[in-house]
Amino acid sequence: MQFTTALFALAAATAANAASDLGAWNVTIESNSAANGYRSRTVLADFASDAYAGDDVIRTVCKYEFIPGADGAKETESCEPNTFSYEYDGTSKCPLLRASGI
Fold first, then answer.
1. What are the residue boundaries of the structural domains of the chain, listed by start?
2. What whole-number distance in Å separates Cα of residue 14 and Cα of residue 22?
3. Secondary structure (3-state) at 77
């Protein structure tokens, strides 16, 4: 079974110009699972602003995989760049994103 959720987290601001200066995240989360317990998730997160536009948009890819097995389960998780992290409860429409030193 596959679920794909496109999430758009826009920076909050009181004026339209201020919102443009703060930038915005465009986040897509794709989750997959199987009856045997296998789970995977791919998070694509792009940050764009006046300073990060066109080819300068910050692109992030995170991958998670849980592979069950008789000899023990294997679980892997990574983000590129590794200064990015996120939290996602599997149901909310907006994940918690953290980026530093990108």
1. 2-99
2. 11
3. strand
For residue 52, which amino acid is it?
Answer: Y
Give residues with Cβ within 8 angstroms of 100, minimum separation 6: 83
Burial code (b: 16+ CB inside 10 Å, e: under 16) for 31-55 equals beeeeeeeebbebebebbbeeeeee
Peptide bond before residue 81 is cis, with ω within 30 degrees of 0: yes
CB count in 10 Å sphere of residue 83? 12
One digit per residue, pLDDT tens: the chain, 102 residues? 443 433 333 333 333 445 557 888 888 989 999 999 999 999 999 999 998 888 899 999 999 999 999 888 999 999 999 888 888 877 777 777 766 655
